[in-house]
Model the fold of this input.
Amino acid sequence: MTTTVRRTGALAGAALGVAGLVVLSLFVGVYDIADQGFGGEMFLISRVPRTLALVLAGCAMAVSGLIMQLLTQNRFVEPSTTGTSEWAALGLLVTVLVAPAAPLAVRMIAASVAAFVGTMVFLGILRRVSLRSSLVVPLIGIMLGSVVSAFTTYLAVSTNALQMLGTWFMGSFTSIVRGRYEVLWVVAIVVVLVFLSADRLTVAGLGRDIATSVGVDHARVLLVGTGLVAVATGVTTVVVGFLPFLGLVVPNVVSMWRGDNARSNLPWVCLGGVAIVVVCDIVGRVIRMPFEVPVSMVLGVVGAVVFLALLLRMRARD
Done:
């Protein structure tokens, strides 16, 4: 009982801390919301939607990383190291070129479908490759993502859409305003579905043989998990852009601290994803005010450091 109370108290304390960061984000920016003219209106039009987008995107991408690590049994994978994000960008670009007037929902669906196809291609390659090291998995994903990204860039250059593509890759919340972020609520549904299927995802992460022996349809769980990751990645790419290493950093830090139980780790992964994205966004807004540094740049630096730390930790164990 004492242990349960202690864990509940720790989670509540962490939630309060993250809530404090979210509130702080509402009051950080160039525009003075205390202005008597349009301060309140700007607060509702810009600050609130941006903060909600930070919460939803951070939670979704952190959970996506956890799902992919469970399904591949590898701690070094997440949407930006498996090519999933690059496939989503390709689907988005093709949709814009084929149907320039397509609404945001259509672009979201196209990006999600492309992300799903790309993730299945990645998993199919893994089945046919002899893996002698856990580092081979992210290397395959990074190479696959680079090939897809190169083709996407070529297509953008050929169609004079390179500037638009650069905006997608930027990963910034600058353009988030009321009327543009609402589609991100779809990823909240994804997170709820992950909570409901957490036990099956955990069992599936133990391998096909073990999952089958306890009555879990491994193939079905794999498809469902991949679909959830694809939707989260596609929607986030359409609205925000790339958020690199977020799905790598948060699940690894949580699992090193609490073990590998997906259900008990999910609240911590969600809180960790939100906290990192909000902190990186605040740093990006403050460091060169009145200009902004994209969140993806700050996340890239943090993620690279953590990735190297994980590699050195694994080498020390060996």
Q: What stands out?
A: The chain has a mean pLDDT of 80. The two ends are 38 Å apart (CA to CA). DSSP finds 13 helices and no strands in the chain.
